[in-house]
Amino acid sequence: MAVTSAKRTFNLKNKKVTVIGVQKSGIALARLVNHLGGRVKISEQSSDAHLPSLFKEWAHERNIPLEFNGHTQKFIEDSELLVLSPGVCFKANPVRWALEKGIPVLGEIEFAFQFCSAPVIAVTGSNGKTTTVTLIRDLLRKAGFKSCLCGNVGSPFSEHVLNPNYDFFVLETSSFQLESLLETNSPWRNSSVSDFYFKGFKPLISIILNISENHLDRHADMEEYSQAKKRIFLNQDKDDHAILNGEDAWMRKISLEIKPRVAFFNTPEDIKINEMSNPNYLAVLEVARILRIDIRLCKEVFAEFKGVEHRLEWVRAIDGVDFINDSKATTAEATRWALNRLDRPIFMICGGRDKHIDFTTLRELVQSKVKKMFVIGEAKEKLRLSFQDIVDLEECENLEEAVFKARKSARKGDCVLLSPMCTSFDMFANFEERGKVFKEIVNKLT
Prior knowledge:
Layout: E1 16-20, H1 24-35, E2 39-43, H2 53-61, E3 66-67, H3 73-77, E4 81-84, H4 93-100, E5 105-107, H5 108-113, E6 120-124, H6 129-142, E7 147-151, H7 157-160, E8 168-172, H8 175-178, E9 205-208, H9 222-230, E10 241-245, H10 249-254, E11 261-265, H11 268-273, H12 279-290, H13 295-304, E12 313-318, E13 321-325, H14 332-341, E14 346-351, H15 363-369, E15 370-376, H16 380-387, E16 392-395, H17 399-409, E17 415-418, H18 431-444
Parallel strand pairs: 1-2, 1-4, 2-3, 4-5, 6-8, 6-9, 7-8, 9-10, 10-11, 13-17, 14-15, 14-17, 15-16
Antiparallel strand pairs: 12-13
Helix pairs in contact: 6-12, 6-13
């Protein structure tokens, strides 16, 4: 008679789990580990100045070991599991030290997935992720499902994963979150940490919207960046689904290499027969077909959709000049999308921290659409060299100066567009803060 083994679980009870990075995801991870009975520790590259006071009090009450201003090898090696916040590169020293000692290393979404009991719909791509996941969340709700939107937008997956009330988790996933994903049969499952029964991140539906230059300050080249995106399919099988951009030759090629059932959107057939030819909408339509949701509900959701904050967001008009917040545009391709959708002369504010992308791909479009460009931040010299010969360009010390000068230059019928093409980390905590500050400055103008 066969012996039935007990159900294997990812058991954290009394295990030393070190969280690397204590931004928003790191805080959620620390709370989750503690809730599950693990002995959490936290190691952070910067100081503790940015930590919320409530979290400091929480950590102090529980005697949670913390180290700031850099990672130390001893602190890392005294762990049984390492969990990375998305901002921590898989090539970082803490990861190397852990792997050399045979300590398992997981990324945030992969770690949270160990405790997930609802199907996951995961969306990645260089542009359009937030719009697409928001539409999917709205569609599921209209169809009567309880869904949680989290991941790279809003709040971390690990903050919500134990909530039993959701029918679906809709995750926005970045290359940072995907690059560390492991296969279910990864070697460290055979390590001495036998309580860690690991299941690979396995969405029911995975979507890649597009691939263009992005995050080349973290990834060595476009090949490494693309391969990180491709890992979203790593643990899917024939019972799962992959939705790919049919216009992209690379995606058509990888469709032959992956195991899930593939559906393409943004094909010539889509454009001909569908009045909603926005690629993001077309990807959502494929989700509806897979889940057998009435397409009429999609049309209702699209009609009701007002856009997402910080993405081509109209702020206000002053003397006939529209001010538009596109702070989420952190790539050249995202800015291309914005410029193509504006039909009036543009006074453009851009700059921030460079992600090693090629701004010159927009030269022709900038020359035809932009009346004047105001550049700020660490990338302003690179932006000046990329555009100064084709457009009137002025360097500014900060966002406020750029807004004031754009306000002074623009006339009735023009628009002032913040579309940075860069990250915000040289001047702001994130693109949300940058967009919020832009709106505050604009709303104070007279």
